[in-house]
Amino acid sequence: MKKIIKSLIPPILLDTYKKTKDANYGWHGDYKSWEEVKKDSTGYDSNEILQKVRSSLLKVKNGEAVYERDSVLFDETHYSWPLLTGLMYAAALSGGRLHVVDFGGSLGSTYFQNKKFLNGLKDVSWNVIEQKHFVNIGKEDFEDNRLKFFYDIEKCMETEKPNVLILSSVLQYIEKPYELLNELLKYSFDFVLMDLTPVSTGNERLTIQKVHPSIYNAAYPCWMLDKKKIDDLFNQNSFILVEEFEALNGYEVISRGKKIGKYIGEIRRKV
């Protein structure tokens, strides 16, 4: 699990790709192996990226900005309403208790995004599992009695007893995404909320996702995942599908003019 956490990289910067017509950015290639795609990639361990995210989120925390995603500031909050619905659904079925594991949750972007609504619940804890350098900054600049940061999920499960797992824009950036999902589902979560997860229109596909330099310079390995494999793992671990939704209104992944995937989300409940 610690090796998996070290490989976490950021969300997918969809707003940027929607606005740019530059074919040099977005999704490229059809790679045969992780080793092959890594040769054309850059990592998420850059201090420049961390400091950009930190600076932006501090402005949100301090009330100087409204919303941050992928280090970019916005003058209005861009909600994922289905994800928020999933959070409220989980809290309603848990007597107002919402203890979240946000796996790969940066410095708490999703927490700050939904904080207005979380404040209406009586028992909330939001726990981010991230890479070491993100956790260090999180603990120093953002942690409080409700938002906490952990280097590994085992310690979090021991101390916070979370009932909800969030996987938002995470699985596609992991070398072995199905292995990670299966491992996470073994923990005692009552609900799993998945968002911003690209599934393939055909066979699963491994690509490079190039970030527009107006955000920062980076290129990441990115899977177009097999939806059936995801469904099978949830079924094997006794999770039923409450609702499936099209993330960001069904945003499609286009490579060289061809649709290769689309973004989905799910609300799942343990039975």
Q: What features would you describe in this structure?
A:
The protein is of the alpha/beta class and 271 residues long. The protein has one domain (2-270): Rossmann fold, CATH 3.40.50.150. The protein contains 10 helices and 13 strands. Strands 4, 5, 6, 7, 8, 11, 12 and 13 form an 8-stranded mixed sheet that branches. A 3-stranded antiparallel sheet has the order 1-9-10. A two-stranded antiparallel ribbon has the order 2-3. Strand 5, helix 7 (132-141) and strand 6 (147-150) form a beta-alpha-beta unit. Helix 4 (47-61) runs parallel beside helix 7. The longest helix is centred in the first third of the chain and has 15 residues, at 47-61. 41% of the residues are buried.
CATH topology: Rossmann fold
How many helix segments? 10
Summing up helix and strand content along with how strands pair, one would put the structural category as: alpha/beta
What series of H and E elements makes up the topology?
HHEHHEEHEHEHEHEHEEEHEEE
Question: Architecture, CATH level 2?
Answer: 3-Layer(aba) Sandwich
- How many domains comprise the coordinates? 1
List the topology elements:
Blueprint: H1 2-6, H2 14-19, E1 26-31, H3 34-38, H4 47-61, E2 67-69, E3 72-74, H5 81-92, E4 97-103, H6 109-118, E5 123-129, H7 132-141, E6 147-150, H8 153-160, E7 164-168, H9 177-184, E8 191-200, E9 205-210, E10 219-224, H10 227-236, E11 239-246, E12 252-255, E13 258-270
Parallel strand pairs: 4-5, 4-7, 5-6, 7-8
Antiparallel strand pairs: 1-9, 2-3, 8-13, 9-10, 11-13, 12-13
Helix pairs in contact: 4-7
